[in-house]
Predict the 3D structure of the following.
Amino acid sequence: MFDIRPVAYVIGLLVACLGATMLLPMLVDLAEGRGQWPVFLESALITMLCGGLIALACANAVQEGLSIQQTFLLTTGVWVALPVFGALPFVLGATEASYTDAFFEAMSGLTTTGSTVFEDLDERPKGLLLWRGLLQWLGGIGIIVVAMVFLPELRVGGMQIFRSEGFDTMGKILPRATQISSSISTIYVSLTLVCAGCYIAAGMDAFDATVHAMTTLATGGFANYDNSFGSFGPAVEYVAVVFMFLAALPFVRFVQLSATRDPKPLLADPQVRGFFLTALALVLVVTLWRMVSGGASGEPALRKVLFNVMSILTGTGYASEDYGLWGPFAVSLFFFVGLIGGCAGSTACSVKIFRYQLLIASIKVQLRRIRAPHGVFLPRYDGRPVSDEVLSSVISFFVFFVVSLGVISVALSLTGVDFITAVSGAGTALANVGPGLGERIGPSGNFGGLNDTAKWILSFAMLLGRLELLAVYALFTVRFWRA
């Protein structure tokens, strides 16, 4: 019989921890004097009480290992439960948002999507802005653990190719998660502190530097101002580019680098090389396009292209200016750039570089087999043969991604939104990028004007994309519950 108690125990603990973090924006609001601190105190008490009671009720079922069923349910359950409670400060606070808007904002934060429904961010209390940043920062470190522990174990989307990358304690998922999270946390916190220091050196004040460092390392994209990074100078943009790039690299390589002081594993990783070359090619193409079509040239044009391309490629979603005004070629290209993503085991989102590399390797092998039917050819990744199981998982992911994009686009269209908003909204939610296309949800707009049904559809799409689709879809199959 399926035992849900170990899953509920872990979820309860994480919910209680989320409630404890609400005390930080409470202290910030006390210092600012905006009178919003009771909101965070009330939200914290409700969240900690609910989480604590759930964990206490299920404590007698704690076990070292989880079954595959329980692991699937835990992976999805955490990302559903946390936004439910993370939305409370938005409902009770200065935004006075409806629960639909609040849940959308919390889901966008924890999945590090970065789409927002709020306007007038410049006037919001600092406690509320810090809470948005904390949601993304917690979601960023959480997704690294999920990507390195749970998804490889669940054989989702080809992630099983990374099962031997490190921390190999198969069969003991919870201890493994603890071991990995402790190693990753040190790197994650260190990079966040360094990023905040660099932002301060580049001209940000301490509060903006702290919040933006959290959302940069999480590749989340929540900013403290309506015009995002358009509020800051050139030095700040360059700092953001560097740390967005670092956040899109596999964090297990940083752990290895800190332990061995040998950069070779990082530099030799095919994901890292592929991501760097992709970013370089895109920056060159868009820069040349702007020079030829719009007459933009010089350092400012290159900086704007570099910043916005890196922001969309990593799924961060910051904007230093409205790239929707760069012309139809740039707009179309940016839509597909958002479907690329960073490396597996990073805070970056979307399809991920390694899947494209495996797909290309498979296509090359098929072409060689056509030319030499009797030859024996095997696709390889990082010098190792790739099993049929991994290739099948990757191809399944691509199929599910395309089908999901189409279904969600149609569903959004049925709510009354226009074609561009429906397609780009579905794409940006599934890829967890942030801004869509057009005046309504583009880099100069937000998602506040959409109807409630569209927001719930997009919230589900964010969850799908953040958990690599198949981990969520498995819960809707009869066979999963009969196993």
Remarks:
- Strands lie at 380-381, 384-385.
